[in-house]
Design brief:
With about 130 residues, the chain is mainly alpha-helical. Helix content is about 70%, strand content about 0%.
């Protein structure tokens, strides 16, 4: 099977983007106000008119250029670079110290228990007073 290295089959590109977005043909059809068979036919078409392409891009949440320039290699490289750059270099800029928050929670829990214990002591004292 002889396939060119740079395919410009717009329908296949739409299909792959839809699959990567975890969208079924039925969902795309609903967004475009058509049926699943029309989406299947569109994804089998090598070319699509610009107006329809704009609608499809909007429904998929991408730009028309993203559809036209989509390639499997670029998508794979994007995700590989994303994973490579994030491994071991997670930069989380907390605006608080998590340990301080744990200590704060512990102290608030301790104060609550003290208030509950005092309430029980008051209740026991009141009941003892009533019994005398």
């Amino acid at each position: 099977m002889n396939t060119p290295t740079k395919s410009n089959h717009i329908g296949r590109k739409i299909s792959r983007i839809r699959e990567l977005r975890d969208m079924k043909q039925e969902a795309l059809a609903l967004a475009l106000g058509t049926n699943q068979q029309a989406i299947s036919a569109m994804e089998n078409s090598e070319t699509i008119d610009d107006e329809k392409l704009i609608e499809v891009a909007r429904a998929l949440g991408v730009t028309v250029e993203a559809i036209k320039n989509f390639s499997e290699e670029a998508a794979i490289n994007y995700f590989n670079n994303f994973n490579d750059s994030s491994e071991g270099t997670f930069n989380n800029h907390c605006t608080f110290n998590p340990i301080d928050k744990v200590v704060e929670l512990f102290e608030s829990k301790e104060k609550l228990y003290e208030r509950l214990l005092q309430a029980e002591k008051d209740k026991v004292a009141y009941l003892e007073k009533l019994m005398k």
